[in-house]
Amino acid sequence: MREYTRSRVKTVSTMQVTTGPSRRRTSRISVADSVWVYWESPSGRDVSKVKDLSPSGLFIETRSRKREGELLNLHFLVQEGQIRAEAVVRHATAGRGAGMKINSVPTQDAPHLHKLLMRLRELPKPQLNATPVAVINPAPST
Predict the structure, then answer these.
(1) CB-based burial, 98-134: b 16+ in 10 Å, e otherwise
(2) Looking at the domain assignment, is residue 53 inside a domain?
(3) 65-112 pLDDT, tens per residue?
(4) Is-contact 74 37, C-beta < 8 A?
(5) Is the backbone of residue 54 left (phi > 0), alpha (psi -120 to 50) or beta?
(6) Lowest mean pLDDT among 26-30, 78-82, 84-88, 126-130
(7) What angle do CA 8, 12, 14 make, to 5 degrees?
(8) What's the distance, CA 78 to chain centroid?
(9) Rounded-to-5 percentages of helix, strand, coil across the chain
(10) Which CATH number belongs to the domain containing residue 91 in this structure?
(11) Percent of the chain scoring above 90 in pLDDT
């Protein structure tokens, strides 16, 4: 496992969730297919799709078993530039993925994470599969 230099900074956010009860201090942004992350841990390494992301956490799809409390080094594969982070697994579902809390982001990578979050917030939301409704006009009375 790689060690980062002392230029790390704790991720802190002032965004508050305003809808519904939640344990999270920041709202997660649903990610389409645009964000992938390379991760390394004592149990292995892989590339996974990011399902949702916030300044303080993320959920990745992975078939690899993760233990609660396991530390991962993350490397986001995005256009904004190099984004590395250290995260801890908070919950995991075998065959589905893992939810993680971001512990730290190197100081020089924090602006890139901010740009990524801004880009994801601006993306159009995916449309739900809506069934078209037929409008029937009544026959005109004569």
Answers:
(1) bbbebbbbbeebbebbeebbeebeeeeeeeeeeeeee
(2) yes
(3) 889 999 999 999 999 999 999 999 999 988 899 999 999 999 999 999
(4) yes
(5) beta
(6) 126-130
(7) 160
(8) 12
(9) 10, 40, 50
(10) 2.40.10.220
(11) 51
> Residue 86 forms beta bridges with which residues?
73, 104
Helix (H) or strand (E) holding 83: strand 83-93
- Domain of 95? 28-122
pLDDT at residue 129 greater than cutoff 50:
yes
- Looking at the 3D structure of the chain, how many domains does it have? 1
Residue 3 belongs to a domain? no
Strands 36-41, 44-54: pairing kind = antiparallel
Q: How many helices (H) and strands (E) does the chain have?
A: 1, 8
From first CA to last CA, the distance across the chain in angstroms is 82
Q: Say if 34 falls within a structural domain.
A: yes
Length of the chain: 142
Specify the pairing of strand 29-30 against strand 44-54.
antiparallel
Please give the helix or strand (H or E) that residue 111 lies within, else none: helix 110-122
54 inside domain: yes
